[in-house]
Amino acid sequence: MAAEISNCDTCNGGLVFDAFGPYPAIDLLNGKAWCALDTSDLWKQEVRGEDRIVPGLEGSRPYPRLRAAVTMQFPLVVVGARDPSGALFANPVAGLAANLAFLRDNLEAPVSVGDGTRPLTWTRPDGVVLRAQVHVVPPLEHRIGPGATCRAVLTISVPRPFAVV
C-alpha cells in the first residue's frame, strides 16, 4: 500500500513558487504529492555589518546593520500515490519518480532569464502576503523510503528580504 499525505499542516500559511516563463506554480504545501513539513526558516533573518575597534578607546564604534541574503531549508515529504493535482497514480513507485522528476524539472532547473531568481509568495498565518525573488539551490536532497515515499530537503537563497505585496 502506498503512503498518502493525510494532513499537510497549513498553520504556517502558504508557500508557492509562482508560475513564470515555462515553469508552473508549485505549492510547497500541496498536500497531495508533497508537503513542506517545516517552514519556520521563513521567519529567519540575517544581517551584515560589524562594529569597528578604535585604537586607544574602550569598546568599539557601532555601525548600523543591513539585512543580508539568507539561506532557508524546507524539509519535504514526497509521495507517489498522487500527482500534484491529486489524481491517483496506478503505480505509486512510478508516481514517486514522476513527482521527483516534476520537482527537479520545474523547481531545480536553472533560471536563465533576468537575475536567475524565481518568484516565491509566502502567505503568513495572519493573512499578510509577502513575495521575494529566490534562488533554488540544487540538488533537492532526498532519501527514498518505504511505501513509495521520499524525505527531501529543499534549499533556497533569498538575496533580498520578503516584501509585502
Return the structural class: mainly beta
Mean pLDDT across all residues, rounded?
Answer: 90
Order of helices and strands: EEEEEEHEEEEE
Low-confidence stretches: none
Distance between the termini: 43 Å
Number of strands: 11
Could you say which overall geometry the principal axes of the C-alpha atoms support?
A: elongated
Largest sheet: 9 strands, antiparallel
How large a portion of the residues is in β-strands, by DSSP E? 25-35%
Count of alpha and pi helical runs: 1
Oligomeric assembly: single chain
Radius of gyration: 19 Å
Helix content bin: 10-25%
Structural features, described:
This protein has 165 residues and is mainly beta. Strands 1, 2, 3, 6, 7, 8, 9, 10 and 11 form a 9-stranded antiparallel sheet that branches. Strands 4-5 form a two-stranded antiparallel sheet. The chain has 1 helix and 11 strands. It has one helix at 92-108; strands at residues 14-17, 26-27, 34-36, 46-48, 66-68, 70-79, 118-123, 129-136, 141-145, 149-158, 163-164. The longest helix has 17 residues, at 92-108. The chain starts with 13 loop residues before the first strand and ends with a strand. A hairpin with an 8-residue loop joins β1 and β2 (26-27).
Task: Describe the structure using short key phrases.
elongated; 165 residues; mainly beta; 1 helix; 9-stranded antiparallel β-sheet; 34% strand; two-stranded antiparallel sheet
